[in-house]
Amino acid sequence: MGAARHATMTDPNPNLISRPRKGIYSHFNAAGEHVADERWQLFRDQDWMRADSEITRPPAFGEARTESHSVEWQADRAGWSLSSLVIHTARNALRREARYNVIGVGETAELDACWQAGGQVGRLRMAWSRTTAPLTASPLSLIAPLRAESQQHLTALTLGALGFEPHWDALGRHSLGQKNRATPLGMRSAFGYALRGAVDAEVWVDATDLPLTCEYRDGSRVLLTGVSAG
Question: What angle do CA 73, 76, 79 make, to 5 degrees?
Fold first, then answer.
């Protein structure tokens, strides 16, 4: 990618399974209004990673609710690939849920997906490519596609904001190099990526690939406002 590289998620760190990282993201809309809080945990070793988060949204979102996200990935020499993605809501009248599982490996892999809102259910099963990146409202879902070093262009699987139904789009990515960046946690050395397509943003990550800031072209932002030691 041209620029100097920082440490990657495939570098060994034996403490991460026994000591998961925890933190808080604050979500802001284009007007600068605080629209959601996200509490998260990140577990990983050399070839496995799971991100769990809970996002609390106010009524202005369309449904006052809490969303629980859980995403798992597996790694091999070709990069990171989705294993499963589960999202469900609570604290609102209409329960919503989505489950995405990858079955099999390589050219025979398939995506089994199901999403539900009350009594309405959608389902599909289709061929799955490891170059497809599932994206949720959490910045943690960006970690795996950012680490796909051999792919500058990926297919993004984005989920509907309210109902979690799947949509496919292109996702392009290029590096912005390493810079010192101002964050809510102070100045940090960060590595940047520009994303275009399904996500239109600049994402800046620390030396462990954790997103520090996500700055979207429409003016909205997600900022890391608290984190445990790496």
Answer: 70
Which of 23-27, 65-69, 89-93, 151-155 shows the highest mean pLDDT? 23-27
- CA geometry: angle at 55 spanning 216 and 19, to 5°? 100
Taking 50 as the threshold, does the pLDDT of residue 217 lie above it? yes
Question: Distance of CA 25 to CAs 34, 91, 117, Å?
Answer: 11, 20, 26
Average pLDDT, the chain: 83
Q: What share of the chain is helix, strand, coil (3-state, %, to 5)?
A: 10, 60, 35
**pLDDT(15) > 80:** no
Do the bridges between strand 153-159 and strand 132-135 make them parallel or antiparallel, or are there none, so unpaired?
A: parallel
pLDDT at 108: 86
The answer to whether residues 137 and 201 touch, using CB atoms and an 8 Å cutoff, is no
To 10 degrees, the CA torsion angle through 219, 42, 193, 167? -70
Query: Residue 94 pLDDT > 90, yes or no?
Result: no
Q: How far apart are the first and last CA of the chain?
A: 25
Residue in the structure block whose two tokens are 């990515």:
173
Q: What is the mean pLDDT of residues 53-76?
A: 79
Residue 192: which residues within 8 A CB-CB, separation 6 or more?
175, 176, 177, 178, 179, 181, 202, 203, 204, 205
Antiparallel, parallel or unpaired: β 211-216 and 21-28: unpaired
